[in-house]
Amino acid sequence: MTPDPAALEFSGPATNKNPHRDYRPLDRAKLTPLFQHYIEAKEQNPGALLFYRVGDFYECFFQDAVIISQELELVLTSKEGGKEIGRVAMTGVPHHALERYSRLLVEKGYALAIGNQVEDAAEAQAEKRMVERQVTKLLTPGTLTDDSMLPPRRNNFLAAVVITGANWGLAYADISTGEFFTLQSANLEDLALELLRLQPAEVLVPTSAPDVRGLLRPGESSPHLPQGLPTGFCYSLRSPKPFDVIEAKQKLLTIFRIRSLEGLGCEGLPLAIRAAGGLLEYIEETQKANLVPLQPLKTYNLTDFMVLDHQSRRNLEIHQTVREGSFYGSLLWALDRTCTSMGGRALRRWLLQPLLDPKGIRARQQTIQELIEQSPLRQDLRQVLRQIYDLERLSGRVGAGSANARDVLGLATSLVRLTDLAHLASQGQSPYLRALHNIPPDLEELGRYVIANLVENPPLHLKEGGVIRPGVNEALDQMRQRIEDDNQWLANLEVTERQRTGISNLKVGYNKTFGYYLSLPRSKAEQVPDNYIRKQTLVNEERYITPELKERESRILTAQDDLNQLEYEIFVEIRDKVAEKVQPIREVAKAVAALDVLSGLADVAIFQGYCCPEISADQGLEIVAGRHPVVEQILGAGFFVANDTHLGSQALESHPDLIILTGPNASGKSCYLRQVGLIQLMAQTGSFVPARSARLSICDRIFTRVGAVDDLATGQSTFMVEMNETANILNHATPQSLVLLDEIGRGTATFDGLAIAWSVAEYLATAIKARTIFATHYHELNELASILDNVANYQVTVQELPNDIVFLHQVQPGGADKSYGIEAGRLAGLPKSVIQRARQVMGQIEKHSKIAVGLRKSNPTKTKVQDSATKGLPPLQAEQLDIFGQVT
């Protein structure tokens, strides 16, 4: 939302030295016509910064000028606003630089209104009036279509939410690709999770509060924003009228030209309908005359995919790293070998929405397997894919009428190459190859038609001419020939006139004021022919025109404009013909993107030595020689130590539901946790996995609690954040979930933390029975394995040397009894004196500590826990000591 003028630091009434003030208190009748129209345009587009075309610049005035000068670090100047008004703030950017500056402002969360001249300035000047201007485009973070303003390998989603009590509806679309989805659910926590997954560029929220419309930049708050929505997004507060269920339903029926919403799957979902209708109205409002062709609305459920909450996505580093937020070092970085931008976007979506359907997973696996076995086919496919442009976004711009000649030609060449792709795909029989066996032949014909009509290297701007090939249009060719003849006559004029007049230094010149002219020295003025008409006299030069020269000039200038206009009209006809095929092009684009993803995953599987995981029906998780897909690429071949994992198989008695994992600091426990989670996620994405072999069941959710993070903005300590995340896991995990916990209870006092860690592990093993790996430094938890049948102890081993330790990074059965924290401190570079003192203190603690935890050590037999998490267990008892061994 544009900052309220009252919040800006203005210092009194306007003067020539102080023009920085709001336009609203001004008497508009005293403003110049330009400023009066500027204010009208502002009020028609509340909340947007207005760029107003004036000559070769886009100018901004009043508060907009102040904001833009601050955000873009531009010089703030001023302009006379009227005789009784004084000067008002002004800043501007050259018209050719608007795109660059617009991108910077939109990235900062601003909405922009672009006011353009909609008539020829010469006509307005002739009639002695102001040039007519209109806002022809609105740019907001969620409604961008230009490639230069969009991330090529990720979607730019515009979302809309409608909340009623605990129920909510969500709709989101990427207008650059046409994707359009909606759903309805009844848990506000799920809404936050879905928004965090989508990472929308802008979220529409209806509000009945008057005069609060506009865009809230990331971090800005408003009392009119519903509680529970995640921070960090741009929220656009909208009128509730387009979100009315009747109006929204009618909008959907009209846009998609249908009589019922049954076919879209949302007939009985009023909140989903309201969100989708409000989103459509906003798209129409922002795109003005450009009709955005959206794909048919798809309704989905949260239960269609594995649930990954924000913490799990962060901890598993799926698309960015935790520490630096970088792409390098993420799972997406390790797996992305796609050849096209649309393939890159599809891979990102797949990783954030792993499948729950074994049939869908196996279809992807079969395609990867076939591409691995047929290496020449895979290489040929990828070679063709590299020659295909972004069909999704190109077709979107064509359908919206905003594509230039290069866009249309790029789309056409890609359509022609689809034939080669289909020919190669016909050699395979796996599901995703079969999807490309029969590409509509009319798409290739359309591509060849466009290529035959457009020049090979068209200019960037459509109205500059030079777009249409010769021979396409007879009238166009005739106009070109006349212009060429006139230009040739003009080129020969200088030589002809020199010969005719005998004046060797006669020249032909041109300027905007006089047009073409004949120039010769004043000393030769007596030699000019009778048909020369003096036009201008300079110090050493006389300039003349002739009737024939003016006639040719008039013909050349008007003919060129006519030629450019005719070329533009022909191009629009070609673009409109392509626009008729937007929907089938997008359907093919989906299949191409999916094949691009799978061929890239096949490449990764070959070069990294991945295996095809077996998808089982039980609750087992068996990984032999598993590896972390990212770490092993960073380390290089042969350096990563592989480890096995066996969890939750009821058919095998030796496979526990919960593993207590102990071992030294920096030995690789967290890496091991993450690699298990990533292997499970990759398997349900349909990818091969980094292991010698793997047998995995379907997992409904992956929960991770890894690392220490605080949230100072909300006053939550590291431990409180840890407890919140742990509570979320215990309240939502099921027997089909995979739970990965690291260092639960370490953020508080030793015995508090131990008690919490024990009870959490016990609850997971007995009440939930989710497949769990529990990494900890509380070696006391190893006692759980002697009590519960479905708990086992594993450790990350080290080799002790006389003066050093060697981390082996091997996970083996058994519990560790040391953490080697002092050795980790030594390796980190703590001063030698600190290390020595720490060893002394540790010796005292080990000598005097008499902590006795009553965990039934006298009875080594295991006690089964059946219905209750605590049934049959003895009370936990301990004597708490201070650091010097005194009982407290």
Write the layout of secondary structure elements.
Layout: H1 33-44, E1 48-54, E2 57-61, H2 62-72, E3 77-80, E4 87-94, H3 98-107, E5 111-117, H4 121-126, E6 133-139, E7 158-164, E8 167-174, E9 179-185, H5 188-198, E10 202-206, E11 214-216, E12 235-238, H6 245-256, H7 270-287, E13 298-299, H8 310-316, H9 331-335, H10 341-352, H11 358-373, H12 375-385, H13 391-400, H14 405-425, H15 431-434, H16 441-453, H17 474-501, E14 507-511, E15 515-521, E16 533-537, E17 541-545, H18 547-579, H19 582-608, E18 614-616, E19 621-626, H20 631-635, E20 643-647, E21 658-662, H21 669-685, E22 693-697, E23 702-705, H22 718-732, E24 738-742, H23 750-768, E25 771-775, E26 791-801, E27 804-813, H24 821-828, H25 832-848
Parallel strand pairs: 1-5, 7-10, 9-13, 10-12, 18-22, 21-25, 21-26, 23-24, 24-25
Antiparallel strand pairs: 1-2, 2-4, 3-4, 5-6, 7-8, 8-9, 11-12, 14-15, 15-17, 16-17, 19-20, 19-22, 26-27
Helix pairs in contact: 6-7, 10-19, 11-19, 12-14, 12-19, 13-14, 13-18, 13-19, 14-16, 17-18, 24-25
Explain this structure.
It contains 25 helices and 27 strands. The model is unreliable at 1-17, 710-715 and 850-888 (pLDDT under 50). The radius of gyration is 35 Å and the shape is elongated. The chain folds into five domains: 5-139, MutS, DNA mismatch repair protein, domain I (3-Layer(aba) Sandwich); 152-302, 2-Layer Sandwich (Nucleotidyltransferase, domain 5); 310-455 and 575-608, MutS, DNA mismatch repair protein, Chain A, domain 3 (Orthogonal Bundle); 474-573, MutS, DNA mismatch repair protein, Chain A, domain 3, CATH 1.10.1420.10; 614-841, Rossmann fold. The strands form five sheets. A seven-stranded mixed beta sheet has the order 11-12-10-7-8-9-13, with helices on both faces. It has 888 residues and is α/β, with parallel strands linked by helices.
